[in-house]
Every structure is written in structure tokens, then in C-alpha cells.
Amino acid sequence: MSFINTLIPSLNGSAAEVETRPVRRPRYEITETTDGYSITVSLPGVSKDGLQVTDEGGELRITGTPAFKLPESGVLYRETSDAAFELVLDHANTIVPEKTVAELQDGVLRVTLSKVESVKPRKIAVT
Amino acid sequence: MRYIQFTQPNGRVTAPAARFGGRLGVAGFDHELDWLFGTALSGFSGAGRGGQFPIDLYQDKNNTYVRAELPGVTRDAISVEFVDGSLAIEASRKEKTGDNETTVSYSRQVSIQDEVQADKVSAVYENGILTVTLPRREEEKPKKISVSVN
């Protein structure tokens, strides 16, 4: 049975650890420059403590959990959601993770990514 | 979100004006339609390219609160006005694309049904969320008067 458990992790008791909470994709914008990319992500209600930016396996993952939840009683009308934000961007290792800079201000995250030298445009001198 | 339609006897299809329980007063039907589609497509994940922005309305024992998602707006450009039971929120955000800088404006009106102490309305902007606190007027409590009988 332990062999099957390794094949199908959901049969294992630890399956409860798998996150099933609802997430939503935030509004975002990417602009490319010659040296890198600049990403602006709209994360209303997310403070620095609730924000996680990770870079692993050629993927940049941004997860933000809103700090405030509406009370269960007394809500007259609502248009927003308590669900966490999640944005996964594939960069296929064309950036230098050490040079990534992230800044959060007023619910807007700005991430600056630097391209690796090999993908930067190069001018070839003609001799 | 509910979108209710009903057919008039003359065959014209109209939408009731007092949608959402008539709690929210939105200026003009066109405006309301824009908002309906705009926010439906954005998945309520924050204010987009100007115009309206998602809000919440809730209350506790003493206050009514209006919470608005306005990420990245200029703090000085936020204006909150409460006149005759109507709360007007205006804000703007500067956006840079290359060398051009454009200003994106937002505005929304919310009608508040409760009696509010207009002079005690306060607002806080944090993490891209504007929270307006509207203290409700205390209803007149029955007073006990003791009369001494001689």
C-alpha cells in the first residue's frame, strides 16, 4: 500500500496538506525593456505580511492574502472577495532571480526582473 | 450577481431600476450598465481602467462602513463627501507608460439608508483599500422621568 501511496499522493493521509482554498488571479501588467521586465500587480487589501513572492523552477509565483475579512454578520452588500490572489508567470529561466526586486505600496506590487545576458539583444559588429 | 429582467405588457424588456435591493443609487442607466459589465469582466479584483471600483457595505452596532478597493491611488487625490444621505468617493491614479503619464480617475456614489452623523464621518486609506466609517445617529431612547408626588 505504501508503494501505491507514493504513486498516488492523494491516497495518503497527508493529502489534507494540499491547498484547496479558492484563489483568484489579480489584475496585472507586464512591460518589457531591453534589460528586463517590469510587472505591476494590483493586490488591494494585501499587506507586506500577507505577500509571498517566490521564484522556483522557471516560475515566478506571487501569492497575496488580504489582511482584512468582512465580518460574518452585518454585511449589507458586497462586491469584493476574501479569496487570496495568485499569479504564476513562466519565465523559463530567462531572468536572474538574484536581481529580482519587489516593492509593495498601497496595494500595488511592482516587480522588476532582469534578463540573463544570453537573451538580451546584442548588436553584432560587422567587420 | 443577479440580473433581473421582466417583460412589460407592451412587450418591451426592461430592467428594474431598483436593483440590489435599491440600496445603491448609481447615476444613470448607462453608467450602471458600464459598471455591471466592467466589474463582471474584471472578476472583482480591484479597480481597473478608471470609472467605477468594487465596494462593500457593512455595519456593526454603531457604524455603517463603506469599503472601496482603490489600489495605487494618490492619497492626496482621494475625496470623500457625504451630502444628504449620499456618499461620493472620488480618486485618481497616475499611470506611466514610457514617457507618457496619464491620470486615471475613479468615482462612485453610494446612498446610505441609515441616519448618519454627518460631522463624524471618517476615512482611512491602507493597503489600497479605502474604508469610510459612518457613525449612525443614536435613535431617541425612551427617557425615564421620575416625578415626585407630594
Polypeptide structure, described:
The complex is a heterodimer of chains A (127) and B (150). Chain A is mainly beta. Chain A has one domain (19-69, 76-116): Immunoglobulin-like (Sandwich), CATH 2.60.40.790. Chain A contains 1 helix and 9 strands. Chain A has one helix at residues 2-7, and strands at 23-24, 28-32, 36-42, 51-56, 59-64, 75-78, 84-90, 101-105, 108-114. In chain A, the strands form 2 sheets. Chain A has a 4-stranded mixed β-sheet, with no helix packed on it. A 4-stranded antiparallel β-sheet of chain A has the order 2-3-9-8, with no helix packed on it. In chain A, a hairpin with a 2-residue loop joins β8 (101-105) and β9 (108-114). Chain A is elongated and about 75 Å long. Chain B has 150 residues and is mainly beta. Chain B is 9% helix and 38% strand. Chain B has one helix at residues 29-42; strands at 6-7, 13-14, 55-59, 63-69, 79-83, 86-97, 100-111, 122-126, 129-135. In chain B, β5 (79-83) and β6 form a beta hairpin. Chain B is rod-shaped, with a radius of gyration of 20 Å. The termini of chain B are far apart. Classes of the chains: A mainly beta (127), B mainly beta (150). Chain A binds chain B through residues 24-27, 31, 42-47, 67-68, 70-71, 74-81, 85, 105-108, and chain B through 20-21, 23-24, 39, 42-48, 54-60, 64, 67, 69-73, 75, 97, 125, 127-129. β6 (75-78) of chain A pairs antiparallel with β3 (55-59) of chain B, so a sheet runs across the interface.
